[in-house]
Design brief:
Elements lengths: L4 E4 L6 E4 L4 E6 L2 H7 L6 E3 L5 E5 L4 E7 L2 E6 L5 E6 L2 E6 L13 E3 L26
Parallel strand pairs: 3-10
Antiparallel strand pairs: 1-2, 2-5, 3-4, 4-9, 6-7, 7-8, 8-9
The structure holds zinc ion (2 copies).
Amino acid sequence: MVKQISGECFCGEVSYEFGGKLRDARSCHCSRCRKAFSAQASAYAEVDAAKFNWVKGEHLLTTYATGNGFGLQFCSRCGSTLCGVYEGAVHGVTLGCVNGDPGVEIGRHIFVGSKAAWEVLPDGVPMYDEAPPDNR
Ligand SMILES: [Zn+2]
Ligand SMILES: [Zn+2]
């Protein structure tokens, strides 16, 4: 049986459940992701939209369109960014809002060539100065 993954925002008013496996957990260190995630980098994994359900608070979500059909959805009460959307459907989740251990680790760090001057990168993880060769 697939373990149910859950997530929620900082204030707890918005929560979701996901019945599949997170795919391609990654961290992007570009300047856009730093601002979008209010952190040194993004931490994000893709989900299968058909297995994703909002449990509560969906009406509190606000979408910020980031371009090319993509957007980020955040809680309008506390500001946590919960998920990425592509053409209106949930595309992935921010790992910071996932509860507990979702059973994945960040597999690659991308755009480390434009990381913040103050960030110290971890050892032993695949890194790419820009987009990875397969460009997902
Ligand atoms: Zn919230
Ligand atoms: Zn980025």
